[in-house]
Amino acid sequence: MARIGVTILALLVAGGVSAIQSVHAPLSALDGVGTNPSDWSSHSGWRSQLLTTARGYDAIILVVEPSGSITAITDSSGLKFTQRFLISGLSEYFARATSPLKSDNITVVGQGMPFGAMQVFAVHSASYPAMFDQDPSVPASCAFADCGDCSANDQAPGMCSVSMQTSRVDFVVAAVAINDAPSCGGGTGGGVQGFTTLVHSGQATFSSIFEVDYALSTVPQSSVVFGCAGTDVEAMVMDGISLNAGS
Predict the structure, then answer these.
(1) How confident is the model at residue 10, as a pLDDT?
(2) d(CA 218, CA 14)
(3) Is 21 exposed, middle or buried (CB count within 10 Å of its CB: 0-12, 13-18, 19+)?
(4) 96 near 131, Cβ under 8 Å?
(5) Residue boundaries of the structural domains of the chain
(6) Does residue 234 have a pLDDT over 50?
(7) Among 24, 164, 173, 180, whose Cα sits 20 to 30 Å from the Cα of 201?
(8) The pTM is what?
(9) Measured distance CA(228)–CA(213) in Å, rounded
(10) What's the CA gap between 238 and 223, in Å, rounded?
(11) In angstroms, rounded to a whole number, what is the distance separating the alpha carbons of residues 154 and 160?
(12) CA-to-CA distance for 200 and 177, rounded, in angstroms?
């Protein structure tokens, strides 16, 4: 598949003030990213990642796009995961860890596993008990044509996007189901302007069916837009994890 040029818009604006300069936000909010075991592809019916964190009181976020239904999520540290959303097969689950984790094993059991995408990560200083931004626009989501008119087509790449309004300082997560099309941000390498890519279509761990990116919105009451062109978007979801500013 030809490499597709992608334009990404990440607008974090509140009253014309720079979102980065206005508050002392926890810039080191990402506290750990799950890694795939070397034998990730050898287990029929399940897939796992290992997560190590440096600090406690983290929000543990799990984004999954299985090739069938999920029947269970288990955790070696005893964390209990709750589903946040499900749209067009793209799911987000969350848990809370009060202590640092060391090689915590998060396992997704379901039809078609291990050949489905998953990514787990930890966000430090998430507010509690209201972990997610309470603005009614959060999470923002769309599926297929509702996302806009975009496709993996050099001649007519189009644009798909979602937007949300924050009410707090947020760790913003964007997940995009793209089947086996190019990544948002440029072919198979990711690289979304204003966002950092956690997983993208160029990785050889059957993650080519989705992409996960994150950004920090440091001004409450900000408009955040995530736009993606030149790929086959099946679903897009953008969520906001509220942070305790200054932590």
Answers:
(1) 39
(2) 10
(3) exposed
(4) yes
(5) 13-242
(6) yes
(7) 164
(8) 0.85
(9) 12
(10) 12
(11) 15
(12) 10
